[in-house]
């Protein structure tokens, strides 16, 4: 299968998750408790994926060229990812994971009243571009995997890392779409405009994935170590989203403490479980 078709295939769950989140914002309401529990689970999963999978893989790729300084360079890139994402989260102030009520009499959240729908769309689009780049980047690396049955070397991508990245994005994406469509709904847009925005926002991820893959495969020849820097940067963005945005949303509430912590722990355990199913790479 063409790598570009694979990029679209891996992006399809993200598109569906985004469309579902926007659809929920248009038609239904999320309960407060379920939102906080789910955000806690996503936080734990994204932290585990970032630290246990994406960052180590990035450092490994950097070490192919910068052997002695790979760890320091990887950590610097991760720090840069944290700084860039934190700046976009705070300066653009586009994340509000509490769903906007479908009723006209419901109270408007303070943050929703501060930001305009243009700022929301711009910030979320930048956030989604990073996610699309992550999918395209993992498919741009050629691995040599040893088949345990035939003992033959097979070239391909790391399905485990790709699956982890896609799942982390899928879990988080409905809340992004909820925010975009929900704030526009508060601004008074009609349903036709809301559905159009929902579709266009969902398509950002596959477009970014294909563009990243095209740039890495067609324009760069020895790009594995460059992808290492990118992976380390992406790990920083994932950490920042989880630690600076999702966890504060979940843990600032005093109710359902056990449920919230258990959901967080389940997310961490799920990310750790991928360590036991990783293929043997050379």
Q: How would you characterize the overall build of this protein?
A:
The chain has 282 residues and is an all-alpha fold. Helix content is 74%, strand content 3%. The chain is built from nine helices and two strands. It has a two-stranded antiparallel sheet with strand order 1-2. The radius of gyration is 19 Å and the shape is globular. Residues 102-115, 143-156 and 278-282 have low confidence and may be disordered.
Radius of gyration: 19 Å
Which consecutive residue ranges, at least 5 long each, have pLDDT under 50? 102-115, 143-156, 278-282
Total number of beta strands: 2
Q: Report strand %.
A: under 5%
The structure class reads: mainly alpha
Helices and strands, in order, run as: HHHHHEEHHHH
Q: What is the general shape?
A: globular
Mean pLDDT: 76
Helix content: over 70%
- Strand order in space, largest sheet: 1-2
Q: What does the oligomeric state look like here?
A: single chain
Helix segment tally: 9
How far apart lie the N and C ends? 23 Å
Largest sheet: 2 strands, antiparallel
Features of the shown structure:
single chain; 282 residues; mainly alpha; 74% helix; globular; disordered C terminus
What's the structural blueprint in terms of helices and strands?
Elements: H1 3-27, H2 32-62, H3 70-92, H4 110-114, H5 117-138, E1 143-146, E2 153-156, H6 159-186, H7 191-219, H8 224-251, H9 257-273
Antiparallel strand pairs: 1-2
Helix pairs in contact: 1-6, 1-7, 2-3, 2-6, 2-8, 2-9, 3-5, 3-8, 5-6, 5-7, 5-8, 6-7
